[in-house]
Amino acid sequence: MAFSSASGNPPSGLTDRSGSFFKLIDTFALEIGELKKEMVQTSPTMDKEPVELQGLEGEVSGVYLQSPHCGGVGGERDSGYDSLRRRMSVLDRLSQTHPVWLLLAISEEKANHILLKQPPGVFLVRKSAALQRKVLSVRVKEDQSETPISHFPVRESQYTFSLEGSGISFADLFRLVAFYCISRDVLPFTIKLPEAIASAKTQKELEEVAQLGAGFWDSALCNQRRTSPRPCRPLSRTLSPQRTNRNREVGGSQQRHTTYCDSAPPTLRSHAPPPSFHLERRHSSGPLCFVNPLFLQTHHHHHSEDHSPSHAVKSDSDLEHAEKSSVKPLSSSEGSEQHADKIKLNGKSRPPPPRPPPPRSMPRRRPAPPPPGPPAAATTRPKSMPEAVTVAARQHQSPSRRPAPARPPMGAKHSSLSKTASSPIPVPSNPPPPRPKKPDLEAHRCHIALDDETIAKALSRAKLPPCEPPPAVPADVLLENNARGSSSPNERGRQRLSDMSMSTSSSDSLEYSQSPGFSLGLAPSPSRHLNHQEPVEDSSEEDEDGEEDEEEDYGVGLETDLEMRLRPSFKSRRRRVGVSLSGGSFILPRALKGRFRKVSGMLSSLMTPERRAVKRIAELSRDKSSYFGSLVHDYISFVQENRGCHTSGMDFLQTLRQFMTQMKAYLRQSSELDPPIESLIPEDQIDQVLEKAMHKCVLKPLKSMIEVALHDFQVSSGAWQQLRENLALAKTKRPQELGVDGAVPPDAVAIEKIRHKFLNMRKMYSPEKKVSLLLRVCKLIYTIMQDNSGRMYGADDFLPMLTYVVAQCDMPQLDTEIQYMMELLDPSLLQGEGGYYLTSAYGAMALIKNFQEEQAARVLSSEARNTLHQWHRRRTAQRSAPSVDDFQNYLRVALQEVDTGCTAKTLLVHPYTTTEEVCSLCAYKFKIPNPENYALFLITEDTSQQLAPDTHPQRIKAELHSRPCAQIFHFLYRRVPNLNLCIPAVMQNGNCLQVE
Amino acid sequence: MAIRELKVCLLGDTGVGKSSIVCRFVQDHFDHNISPTIGASFLTKTVPCGNELHKFLIWDTAGQERFHSLAPMYYRGSAAAVIVYDITKLDSFQTLKKWVKELKEHGPEDIVVAIAGNKNDLGDIREVPMKEAKEFAESIAAIFIETSARNAVNVEELFQKISKQIPPLENPEVDSNESFKLTRQPALSTRRCC
């Protein structure tokens, strides 16, 4: 695969392409973790930076060069043990054992109680009731702190998690914790996994631990393991220079990738062509970490505070205070040049913005930068590429997508530096000049971390040699690279690390490099994207369009990304990662570019946490063995089969909205989402993410059915006909007759354009995306109005104009569209801009609907007014949380008849509805003439059991769903041989259609 | 600082300067970075108030009679309503009274009502005496202020007054975050007969 490198590699290894990238990352992380730990052990004087650095330097080269097969150098290394361990990264261990350490619900007292018995470094994450935030509670050494337990508040910014006082932020809690297992950053020391977790050799062991949950801490497992000393690796191994020898790498794909960092000089490597990423994209869990770029502050804390746990708080009551004090000015005591360098380096890399840059910045987009592969990889890559392309092509049925462009042959870059440097990069050749940046301290503190980069970054940070030139300046980087070329092996290793850090940083960081004044506190703002992002709300919304079709193929090959980036018009949310990464890279010298490319390649293979969470929920919804999945499934079936049970379109939409709101509440409360969503998504984002997920799980499958149903309701009520007539009448009116006064109306061409947008809007299932398109229509209308006069128009002018436009578009379907948005839009969005213009559109449509009446009376019918009032009340009331009970009300029951086989219906069945009642409902629904001969049976794989009349099918269902091993079961309504319901359960094969 | 979003609805006859007031209010500190607006009928502005930030979401309405019936959709959920009249047009003051009445009857219960007599730069053709308007405002416990959107008089003050009348949030609800996990109902009630 891409990383199999070094010339000395056995060709056999090359065949193992899949997943090796992940292994690489995991290996990094693992190694780093171990190294760090060793570091702590070997240099108890942590406060002394030099010591640390020295150790690190050695460690680093070890990280990349170490091969399990040559572990003999250190003598103490047990290769078998290591290779086992290597299979599970810190992140893996954390993810699998979160029930142990992620104890959001426990109190501070309880946390203290648990941790007191633990050795220093052991931690857990809980939610502080006083602070209303998550805190990392850590057992500290007695001599380091007044209290044995310190609590570090977790800051949740819009997209990320970070420790208070640290500039490093993470996509989720797991990554945060994993990072602090490896690097202490603002902590007094690195935190430690409980021994049982850290030393678990197999998945199974971890599972056992996880099963214990919070009980782990009191278990024998926890206590017994704690005493056994961790095997520690001799430092020597990492220091041994011969390790740097590439040829040492043998076998084992993991080892192979590790080499890549070490194998090629940075300049060469930087040109690594994109490896195919389709493979790793299949993994939903990203690599452990890359480092998140911005971290100026960290260093300051690091050095200036002498490792005192200044951010830690002794107790909840102090938290608040600590929070304030922990935010230190960036410029605080800059210790040494070395620090400055680091900072520059770090500052240079910037987390990609959460949202894609607006279209105008798109030309800068480059093809996704794949992680660089070592030269030897050349042979493999070409193979993988066509494959990736086909995958991509297959999965992209969206018309807007073109087949992914072929990548430049991988070999090219290896052949020679100059060649690669000049090789065509599929990027617009004239990138726009960088925008002026303004200092933005807050942004600098980097809330917007990108996923998984963090650890590598920290690593690199720690390893930066004191005299390293600031890579922030491209030219310097080049120099640096050159200089490196001639450096000793040891330095090389180190340098590689720093390379890595560069590569992990997003290319946006270039913006930093552009700013001459960039030093410490006043770094140029990384918020360029932010700035773009916000004002151009409407343009960023364009992204939503493409996404509709894309959501499905999220896991596709990188090629797609590549291609999208090449096409400025392409809207893809995916750009969030990829684009922002590549954005800005144009300023880089090519040598550097390559590095960035490889990094952003890595990154683009990862999903944003939001996408990941949505995807996870969507998967859960398809998993019928989960309770959530069965609820969603039952509901969807119910809706599809029982359209008739709604009295109106509005009624129908309301039940849909209610269901979604209820399911959101369920997901928040239930433990089915594993890991808990709180650990993946910052608190204030959770609702949005859940909303999005519900759109996908519920609205998407039902969209066409909803459309039909709404239309049918309209037709049957006569509203459709009336609307058409009124639209036709309104269309004949001049703008003035509709109240337009002065402003210039859109011409026919513009109307056509608007119609087109409305048609696009109809294709969306997500109410939010529909609204975003509606906003674009409004924007267009405004632009036309203003272009011709230069004045600002308020609602007095806009609403009549919108009415005119709606009339001119002559699209009666728009009415149901508006209804759809009005009823289904997330209530929290109703007050904002989207809500405003949606209301205006509704108003315009209402006026048109009542046009004839209005002509007569000049006022809306009282009926229309009442409707509005009701809507108001309803949508406002809906904000109250639903009860969890409400949505468990569907039961799918199959009817088995001798002659006709099985038919199934989804019935509305409340939890306390008895079997008897269900039977009579079935009799009615299935139109059974002789219900007394029928009964309800529970069918499992090998049993069939008649349910007693007084049992509760819903509760039975709930029970079955909650069993650890999911069983397939069905409720079957069928004839009983004997009329007596009190016969023993009839045992027979339940060989009917699967209805669940 | 916590940001509180406050929906503010603008009511009043067409032509009294509703949107001018808002544009003035918003644009005096026009920040290209935080103004995500499609057009001037929906604008936002954030102002500090005590230890909170108030983000005004300002909903403009069309003042023409024919759109009157749509108003409930605009003022629903509003924390405040600004009813604007033109001091040079007595009619607009009459319309204002109708709005006050409607709000009392159908508006949100605790809505803060502010009365703004706009165009006070045209004092020489004034039709609505300030005293009368002020007394009316007092009678309904509304904020009263005369403004001039054109000369940027009292616009800021208008919104400051509104800000002050918004009741501060109670201690952010300490929802018991000792989050409990919903466990599935146990108790399998299936039973075999006989």
From TrEMBL, chain A:
Residues 101-195 form the SH2 domain. Keywords: Cytoplasm, GTPase activation, SH2 domain. Residues 350-361, 425-434 have a biased composition (Pro residues). One of its GO terms (molecular function) is guanyl-nucleotide exchange factor activity. Residues 887-978 form the Ras-associating domain. Residues 225-281, 300-446, 461-559 are annotated as: Disordered. SUPFAM superfamilies: SH2 domain, Ubiquitin-like, VPS9 domain. Residues 252-261 have a biased composition (Polar residues). Residues 536-554 have a biased composition (Acidic residues). Residues 498-515 have a biased composition (Low complexity). GO terms for cellular component: cytosol; endocytic vesicle. Residues 717-857 form the VPS9 domain. It comes from the Eukaryota. GO terms for biological process: signal transduction; vesicle-mediated transport. Residues 303-326, 437-446 have a biased composition (Basic and acidic residues). It is found in: Cytoplasm. PROSITE patterns: RA, SH2, VPS9. Belongs to the RIN (Ras interaction/interference) family. This is Ras and Rab interactor 2. It comes from Seriola dumerili.
Automatic annotation (TrEMBL), chain B:
Keywords: Cytoplasmic vesicle, Endosome, GTP-binding, Lipoprotein, Membrane, Nucleotide-binding, Prenylation. It comes from the Eukaryota. NCBIfam families: small_GTP. GO terms for molecular function: GTP binding; GTPase activity. This is RAB31, member RAS onco family. InterPro entries: P-loop_NTPase, Small_GTP-bd, Small_GTPase. It holds the Pfam family Ras. GO terms for cellular component: early endosome; phagocytic vesicle membrane. SMART domains: RAB, RAN, RAS, RHO. Its main location: membrane. Belongs to the small GTPase superfamily. Rab family. It comes from Seriola dumerili (Greater amberjack). The keyword Electron transport does not apply.
